[in-house]
Amino acid sequence: MPRGMFKSGRLRKIFVKTPGGVTHIHYRQRKPSKAICSVCKKPLAGVPREMPATLRNMPKTAKRPERPYGGVLCSTCMRVMFQQKARGESA
User: Fold this and answer.
1) Alpha-helical runs (H) found in 8-87
2) What is the reported pLDDT for 1?
3) Are 50 and 31 in contact (CB under 8 A)?
4) Which of 12, 43, 77, 80 is at 20 to 30 A from 87, Cα to Cα?
5) DSSP string of 49-64?
6) What is the pLDDT of residues 26-85, one digit of tens each?
7) Contact 44, 35 (CB under 8 A)
8) Host domain of residue 54
9) Handedness of CA 56, 62, 66, 71 (dihedral sign)
10) Number of domains observed in the structure of the chain
């Protein structure tokens, strides 16, 4: 029987077949959910879905797009916001 901490569903199961032909269950942390746009709630492209420890070791340019509001707004919402600012509308 698995220990209580492994029964909650917090960790994901990985089935590993050993050289002896026996399948063992390894437990790993689940990946975080996708980053979403703060305006339209669409998943952001170019933002990795990794564990915090992995993200710490990534370069800054790999963590989010290098455009204004990259990692916060999707490209469509960013364009609309710039058009509204240029027209003098309230954003």
Assistant:
1) 52-56, 60-63, 75-87
2) 83
3) yes
4) 43
5) ---HHHHHTS-HHHHS
6) 999 999 999 999 999 999 999 999 999 999 999 999 999 999 999 999 999 999 999 999
7) yes
8) 32-91
9) negative
10) 2
